[in-house]
C-alpha cells in the first residue's frame, strides 16, 4: 500500500484548528445563497457534470476479472470478494462455507468466487452459514440466492427489522444474539459482537481471530472519506464511537464493506483524524458564524425556515472548507462528500451533543 502522510497530518493539528476558526468566521457568498460548496469541484464540463480532484492511487483496489469481481485470500482459509463498490468475506471450512454479507451488486459473482476458491483449495463449496452485518438491503439483498436451509445469523434487532421489512430477498436470521456470539464451523471461528447502535441500531463487529481480520461495515472506508452524510448513519455519536471500538480490536486487516481494497490500521487512524477534524471544525463554525445577517434578511418577512436554511448552510460551508483543504489528495473524494458530512456533523453537534451556538438558552 502507498504510504500516506499520516504523521504530517497528526503534527499539523494546531495549524488545522487555526484554519478552521478563520474559515468559520467568514461565511462565503455561496453559503449565504444556499449554493454548493465553493471550491468543492471545478467548473462543470460540457456534459453538465463537475470535475473533482484526482483520486489518489492508494485508494484503488485490485483489478476486476472479466466477470466483474475480484476474489482474494486474506489469510489461510479467509477470503474476500469485491466489485470495487461493495465487499463480502467468506471462510472455507472442512464442512462448508461461512459467508459474511451478500451485497446484491456482487450477486451471483459470490457463487462464482466461492466456487473458484473451494475448487482450488479442495474444500466443500456449499454455503452453510450466512452472517448479516446489519439489515440494510445494499449489503444483504442477495441473501435470497442462497438455499433457504442456510443458517442465517444476525443480531436480534436485525431480525426484528427484517421481519418488519418483509423483503423476500432478505430472509430474517434463524439464529440471533444480543451481545456476543461465537460461530465455530469446520475448525474455523468468527466472533460476533454488538457494541451498541452506530451506523444502524444492529450493526455488528465480525472478528476472525485466527486471521486477525475485522469486518465492520459502513464505519471505516479505507483510502476514502466516509460516504455522504457520515455513511447515512442513524446514530452519529455511536458511529463516531465505533471508530474507537474498531481500533481496540487487534486486527491487521479490515473489511469495511465498501470500495475496492482492504484496510490496514493506518486507514483507521487516518479516518479517525478526519472525523475528529470535522468535529473540531464544526465546533469552530458554530461558535463563529453570526446569525444576525440571516435574521436581518429574512426576519422582517417572517420566513423562519429561510433564516435557518442559510445560516446552517454557512455553518456547513465554514465547517467543510478547511477539512477539504487538508484531506484533498490524502483521502479520495474529500471534495465530493465532505460538505454533506459536515452538514450532518453540525446537526449532530446541535441535537445530539447539545452545542447550540447562538441558539442556546436565552439569557
UniProtKB/TrEMBL annotation:
CDD domains: metallo-hydrolase-like_MBL-fold. It comes from the Bacteria. InterPro entries: Metallo-B-lactamas, NDM-1-like, RibonucZ/Hydroxyglut_hydro, TAT_signal. Residues 85-258 form the Metallo-beta-lactamase domain. The keyword Signal applies. Keywords: Signal. Pfam families: Lactamase_B (PF00753). SMART domains: Lactamase_B. Residues 1-43 form the signal peptide. PROSITE patterns: TAT. PANTHER family: ACYL-COENZYME A THIOESTERASE MBLAC2, METALLO-BETA-LACTAMASE DOMAIN-CONTAINING. This is MBL fold metallo-hydrolase. It comes from Streptomyces lannensis. The lineage of its organism: Bacteria, Bacillati, Actinomycetota, Actinomycetes, Kitasatosporales.
Amino acid at each position: 500500500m502507498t504510504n500516506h502522510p499520516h504523521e504530517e497530518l497528526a503534527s499539523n493539528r494546531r495549524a488545522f484548528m487555526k484554519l478552521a476558526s478563520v474559515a468559520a468566521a467568514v461565511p462565503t457568498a455561496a453559503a449565504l445563497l444556499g449554493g454548493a460548496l465553493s471550491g468543492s469541484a471545478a467548473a462543470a464540463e460540457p456534459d453538465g457534470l463537475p470535475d473533482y480532484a484526482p483520486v489518489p492511487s492508494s485508494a484503488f483496489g485490485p483489478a476486476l476479472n472479466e466477470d466483474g469481481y475480484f476474489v482474494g485470500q486474506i489469510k489461510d482459509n479467509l477470503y474476500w470478494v469485491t466489485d470495487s463498490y461493495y465487499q463480502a468475506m467468506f471462510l472455507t471450512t472442512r464442512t462448508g462455507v461461512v459467508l459474511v454479507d451478500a451485497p446484491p451488486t456482487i450477486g451471483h459473482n459470490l457463487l462464482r468466487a466461492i466456487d473458484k476458491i473451494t475448487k482450488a483449495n479442495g474444500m466443500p463449496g456449499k454455503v452453510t452459514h450466512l452472517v448479516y452485518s446489519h439489515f440494510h438491503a445494499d449489503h444483504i439483498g442477495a441473501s435470497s440466492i442462497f438455499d433457504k436451509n442456510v443458517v442465517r445469523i444476525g443480531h436480534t434487532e436485525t431480525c426484528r427489522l427484517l421481519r418488519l421489512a418483509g423483503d423476500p430477498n432478505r430472509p430474517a436470521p434463524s439464529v440471533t444474539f444480543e451481545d456476543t456470539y461465537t460461530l465455530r464451523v469446520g475448525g474455523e471461528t468468527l466472533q460476533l459482537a454488538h457494541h451498541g447502535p452506530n451506523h444502524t441500531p444492529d450493526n455488528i463487529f465480525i472478528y476472525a481471530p485466527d486471521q486477525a481480520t475485522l469486518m465492520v461495515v459502513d464505519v471505516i472506508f479505507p483510502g476514502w472519506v466516509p460516504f455522504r452524510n457520515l455513511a447515512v448513519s442513524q446514530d452519529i455519536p455511536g458511529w463516531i464511537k465505533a471508530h474507537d471500538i474498531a481500533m481496540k480490536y487487534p486486527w491487521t486487516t479490515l473489511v469495511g464493506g465498501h470500495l475496492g481494497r482492504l484496510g490496514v490500521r493506518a486507514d483507521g487512524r487516518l479516518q479517525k483524524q478526519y472525523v475528529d477534524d470535522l468535529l473540531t471544525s464544526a465546533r469552530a463554525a458554530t461558535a463563529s458564524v453570526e446569525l444576525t445577517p440571516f435574521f436581518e434578511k429574512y426576519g422582517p418577512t417572517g420566513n423562519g425556515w429561510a433564516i435557518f436554511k442559510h445560516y446552517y448552510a454557512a455553518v456547513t460551508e465554514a465547517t467543510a472548507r478547511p477539512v477539504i483543504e487538508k484531506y484533498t489528495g490524502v483521502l479520495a473524494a474529500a471534495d465530493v462528500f465532505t460538505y454533506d458530512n459536515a452538514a450532518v456533523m453540525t446537526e449532530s453537534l446541535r441535537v445530539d451533543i447539545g452545542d447550540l451556538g447562538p441558539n442556546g438558552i436565552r439569557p
